[in-house]
Structure formats: structure tokens, C-alpha cells
Amino acid sequence: MLVALLKFYEIKTTQMKQALYIILLFIGVNSFAQKKILDHKDFDIWNTIKNQAISVDGKYIMYSLEKGEKDNHLKIKDANASLLFEYERSENGRFNYNSNHALFTIKAWKDSVTEMKRRKVKKDDMPKDTLGIYSFKTKSLTKIPNVKSYKTPTKWSGVVAYYLTDIKQEKSTDTTEAKKKSTKKKTKKVSSKNGFHLVVRDLVSGKEDTLKYVTDFSFAKEGKRLVYTTTGEDEKSNSSVNVLNIENGNSTQIFEANNKSKYYKLQLSDSGKNLGFVVDTDTTKALVRPNKLYHWTEGQTNALLIVDADSAPKGYRVSSDGTISFSQDDSKMYFGLATPPIVQDTTLLKEEIVNVEVWTYDEPRLYTVQELQVKNDQKKSYQTVVHLNNKKLVQLATTEYPNARLTDKGNAPVALVSNQEPYLLESQWTGRRNSDYAIIDVATGTSNKVLTNVSSSMSLSPKGNYVFGYHAQDTTWVAYNIATNKRLDLTKGRVFYNELNDSPNYPGSYGVAGWTKNDSAVLIYDRYDIWKFNPNDGSNTRLTKGREQKVTYRYVRLNPDEDYIDDSGKWLLTTFDEKNKHSGYYEYNAKNGKGKQLLTGPYSYSRPRKARLSNNVIFTRQSFEEFPDIRISNLSFKKDKIISNANPQQSEYNWGTAELVEWTSLDGLKLQGMLIKPEDFDPNKKYPMIVNFYEKSSNGLFRHKAPSAGRSTINYSFYASRGYLIFNPDVYYREGYPGESAFNCVIPGITSLVEKGFVDKDNIGTQGHSWGGYQIAYLVTKTDIFKAAESGAPVPNMISAYGGIRWWTGLSRQFQYEHTQSRIGGTPWEYPQRYVENSPIFNIDKINTPLLIMHNDADGHVPWYQGIEFFVSLRRLGKPSWFLNYNDEPHWPLKMQNRKDFNIRMQQFFDHYLKGAPKPVWMERGVPAIEKGINQGLELIKN
After folding, report:
1. pLDDT tens digits, one per residue of 546-596
2. How many other CB atoms are found less than 10 A from the CB of residue 148?
3. pTM of the prediction?
4. Domain for residue 172, yes or no?
5. Which residues form the Peptidase S9 prolyl oligopeptidase catalytic domain (predicted)?
6. Are 664 and 742 found together in one domain?
């Protein structure tokens, strides 16, 4: 009886458990089924983290959340993630140096500004910015309206300086008062010409000092000094340069001139003890401006003239565009000299001026490049030094060697100068900017040519003992000893160049970590490890052991003011596992050569940002599923705290997952790629799939893809949420056959996924832009595997594209085909068949895939006539195709309304072909020119 009773209860208990499980499962499934599907309107509710910062003492973290690319919401939290302060529509936040205050700009709501523009509100009546000052000590907020801009000192605290915009006076209704005012002299108005009122505010006491009609100002980096120029109290006042001593509040006028004078490049030394500026006091309309360079040092009554038109080196004049700076030890002032400007005959009438472009076959720069660089050429200056102890002037850069580099914060006795001009003509087809290099003695100006025809950028070591860099022609890191005049090839015959280089060009390097103290060693990267090289004899040591495990180690510079890497301390390194794409942090003890992994996992970790005076660091980690919220920890990374929670709404949406997939190319290469699946993926179902790729992307497996109106590519989260698979395969290229290489890598990747059983082989699409757009244009001439394709800014005709111009830079496109991304490896007359075989235009009749093409008429990368060639050829053949041109937009649509429109049309296009959704009106009948900007044709056609 007892046994039977127990059996009864056992059965009942089991039934109840099963029933409960079914109920919970139903609730879970139902709850999951109720998750939202991402739509275009959801882009507007997603936040992006902007301007993250950690205070100097590491106690506070500040950041802004920008929602839908509109308003920013500023937040300040402590190291425990407790919210201390927040303010909506605020940005441009920063801590002052002692971490006692946070400053930020309060803006008007962007929607309200949009509505005011719609109502045609005048510019002067639009809302002005407000400066917000939050005190951590008193927990109080001070708001100062009508602030144009503000600055705080870099390495000291106590004050803020801000420009006020013009504040309109209320009109008086008292006619007597109005009459009195009318008899008075007109008040000088603030403007960019007259200057604005500058307020210097003590952040603790709130005491303010207003400086009138200030045209320029800046703080010294370390010394408590502020320099400013003013046009004077009224129209008859002289202009002047003044130095304000923040410690005692005294302002000293150190230069005065007529009120039409113009001042340039106002600059204090870091200590605040020296000041340099350029002034033009001439009141005539002379086309060649007689600029003068002045210098002032603390203790002097007035600034002293250093260089003018009479004392400048022959053939040069003082530049108003060249940067002024000081050596850290205050012994030298650097400034710019310029050659005389080319002036036009002002007596000529407009109809008398001949406007003709004369292009010459052997001039160094192509005319289109010259045309875009006219303003730069007009502002070109040549770095020069004045030794402040004896006022000796030494010209460093000249027309022979126009580019100069300093080191050791300007203290070094040498400078490195270079010249590209002998090699500019050939850069048209090589894409390389080779240079000659010389060393200049800063004290005497004597020069010594040290390197010739070097294809990569060279630089000086921190203390100026070596010229150092990567010589691409030799795939070798080079150290040139300045004292001994000897060159040493440090890595000759060894693999310190890009091992995966697959273009017909010299392989690049992996870079350097930096130098150790007193230039004793340089730390060079190979593909995986950090090596320590002696620049004198080339002896070297491998410091990390990454190659064996295919793990890459890289040095993290935690101190932005770091002059050298301390080889007796501990370093923080990042790690990246090439096999599984995991990343993390590693501690390396440079003294004993030992190390330990601090953190690693299936995430992408950012480079940490350390507080200046604390071991606290902020960083992010991310994956496809996890948004990169800000975290705080110390350098042990044993514990971290999540500071931000930017997008909690993500949990409400059907998201997706990312995984690494592998297959073998038709060439026999082992390949990797990313596969994105919907969150509710069921392996027993079949899904439509979009193939999106460029070159190699699998290293980004753990990067988050927030919903946004992208400018050129599908949004992975968006399409995964809507039930699509996304496949992003890596592509490896063979010289001369880029199209075939893409086919050999991409197509077997697709078929390997189809074989898994969950891809709907009849509903596969593809999408890509620029180089990706070209590859898609090529693929659809070779296969019918795609049901639909979007090809953005493609090149269907490599022959005509070879002769094109990249209009943003004015550069010829020849180098791209001969040596870089297009990978043909030569000219059309050397390899005509390669150009034909790789050009989709010659096989366009083989295309059976409906195509959406987007190519904009202001494209500065790929000439938009390439997209037109593609479209009109498809149109000629009656192939289903559509062409989108966003007027006045560049290589990608940048304006928000255009990006949203592009994303909607692309989704409608793929939904129609891959999901059987109704056609939109624009696909059925287009949008006639008479309706452009009025009717978009986005409505779906009902059956």
C-alpha cells in the first residue's frame, strides 16, 4: 500500500514537473517570439558613445550618448558607476586638470533648431550655446549663456576662458532715452573682425575678468599665462598684444599698433615665459604683405622685432601661415618663412584675363593635383629657427628640402629635412612618395645628405641620434647613425614586412612600438612579436613569443607625454589570437622578460585609456551581441565595472550571433569568414542569405554592429533581425587576376554554407561598395548563384578607369591598377588581356542577376561615369537594373536623409527578390525627374 502510494506521488510529481516545464517553455518561446524586429525608425533610438574621458585622478568618467546622430546626453559617473551628474543636449565635455570641475557645452535641441529653420528664423535669432560648469566639490552647476567657444589650460587648473557672442540690447520704449542714445557715439560691435568679449573666470571663486574685443587667445601649456590680441575699446583705439598673468591678475601690453593691424600665430612657450607672433601693420593694399616676426620673453617691457622684410633671408619673407613653436627648454623659437607670392596684374579687366590650363608631360605634379593644392601652395612655409640667446636665425627647410621634422620636443641639435619632388612624376603610376633626406645642424645650418630615393617615411629617434624608418624597396628597417654617418640595415633578409601582402607592390611594415631611453634600443614589430634592436650593431632579442601560437602582441602607450619606453618597468600589451579572433591584455615585465595574460576572451577589446595620475583605466569590450560600453579597472584588470549602459533597449529586439566559418578556396587556400545568424536561428529552416565582403574582414568577428543608416553597406544587425543570414568571406588575391581571385574565394564559401542545409540556395543576394562593388559586378558575369545584387560605386571598365582621376585628390588612378588595390600589376599596353578579363563590361551580356547600382555624381574616389557605363550597358541589354545617384554626394551618401533613403531602397530591393515582398513604386516605374525631391516612390505596390 505504501509503495503504491509513493509510486502515485512520484507519477504525479513527474507530471507536474513536465507540465511546469511545458508552461515555462511556452512562456519563454512566447516571450522570445514577442521580441521586436528592427526597422529603419529604430536607428533613431540607438545611442553612440562620444567623447569618453577619465579625470586626471581616475575618480570620474565623463561621456556623452548621442541618440540617432542628433542630441547628446552628457553623463558623469564615479569609479563605482554611480551617476553623479547628467545634462541633456550637452557635448564637448572635458575635465579641468585637477579634476575639480567638468565643463561642457549646452546646445539647443536639434529638432527645435530644425523647426526654427523651417520657420525661416534669422541666423542672429537662433539659440546660442551655453557653457556648463559642474563643481564636484559643491555638486553645483553654473550655466553661462551666449558662449561662442571656450578653452581650459592643458596642464594646470583654476580658470576657464570663453568668448561671448553679441548680446542684443532690448529696444527702449522711452523716447527720451532713445534720443539720448542717438546723440552718443555708435558702440563698437563684436565680430570676427573686431573681436569678441573674452571672459576669464576663476572656477572656484566665480570671479570674472572681461577682456574686450579679443581676436585671438591661448593658454600656455604649463605656465599660468594667457596671451590675447585685442582691437581696442573703440573704433579709434590701437590694437595690441597682451599677456595676462593668471597668478596675480596683471595684464601687460607688450605690443601696440594701428587698429588695422592683423596678428597671426600667437603662441606661448609651454612654460609661458616666451611668446612669438607675426603681425602685419601695413595699412596699404600691397599684394605682398610685409609681415614681421616678434618675440617677447618674461621680464621685457615690449616684444622685440626678430625678422622683417629687410632682414629675412634672400628670396623669403615671414609667413603668416607657418606654425610658431618653442623648444621645451625655451632656448629656440621655430617659425615659418615663405617665398614671395605670385601676384596678378590688378589693372586687367575680367574679359582681358586668359584662363587656360597648360598641362606639361614632365612636371612633377599632375595639373589636377596642383589645382586642388593651390591654397596649400600659397600657404607653404619653410621651418626656421631663432636661437633666443643670440637671436641667430637658421633656416632649416628650404625650397631644396621643403619638409622639416624636429625631435626631442625641439631641443635636439639636429633636424631632418626631406624632398619628394624628384620622384613626384613617377608617383602617378607607382603610388609611392619617395624622398631624399638630409640632416641639418640646428645651430649652424650645415646639411648632410643621408638617404636617397627612400620609399617610406623616415623620422628622427627621440633624442636625435638616428634617422630611422622602413625602407620599402628593401623590405628593411634602417637606422642611420648621425654621429658616425653610417647606415645599418637592421632587419635585412628577415620577415619584418607584411607577410600577407597580395598586391603588386612593396609590402608594408608592421610598425614600431617606440624607442627606449636615450635612443639605446628600438622596438620593432613583426607579424606577431615585439623585437628589441640595438641601432648601433643590429643585435636583437625577441621579447614576446606570439608566433608559435599565432598571437599578435602590441605595446600600449598609456602616457600621452611618454618620451621613451621604460625597459626596466612593466608594459601593457594588447593580444590578438589570429586563429579564433580572441583579444585581450598582457603584462610584460621588461626587466626580467617575463609576462602574464591579464585578460582574454571572445571579445574585441579597445586600447585602454589611463588616468594621468592614477592606475585606473577605461576601456571597452565588444562582440556582435555586446555593445562596447565603457568599463573601468586598474592595470591588473582583475575586476572591472561597467560604467555606461548605452543601449538597454537592445534586449527587446531580435538580434543575431556571429561565428567563424572555414572552407577551402578553388586555389586550395584555407579561408575564414564571418557568418551572422538571426538570434532565433533554427538549423532545420532555410534562410535567405546576403553575401557582403570587401577584402579580409574575419578579424572583426567580435565587433559590434549597432543599427544605423550606413552610408555604403548593409547593416548586419538590421538584416539578421529581419531573418537574413549574412556571410562575409575573406578574399586572397593573385596578381593580375583580382576578379577571378574573388570568385575562387567567395563562391566555394557560399556553396560550403549551402551544404549545411540552412541556406535557401534559391534566395542568395550580394552587396558591396567600391572595391566590393567591383567584385560583385565581376561575379555576376560569372555565376547565376545570386538572386539579386547591389553594387555600389563599381568599376566595370578597368581600361577607362585606368585613365581616370580621383577627384578628391586630383591623383591619376594609374597607380591603383599597376601597384595597389586593383592588382593588375602593369599598364593596359603591357597586359591588355588582364584589363579585359577583369572588366565586367566585356561580359555584361552574361549577367542574369537583377542589379541595384548606387553611384553619386560628386564621387571623388571612383569616377561616377563608371556607374553610368555599367547601368546604360545593362539598360541597352534590357537587364533588370536600377541606378541611384544622390546629387552632390561623394563616394557614399553622407547626409542623413540620403543614407536613410538608400537603406530603405536597398532593403526593399532585397526583400522583393529574396523574400518575395511586393515591389516598391520606384522599382516599378522609377522616379521621373519632374518628381525628384517630391515623390520618392517608396510605397509598396499591392497585388
Report:
1. 999 999 999 999 999 999 999 999 999 999 999 999 999 999 999 999 999
2. 16
3. 0.92
4. no
5. 742-916
6. yes
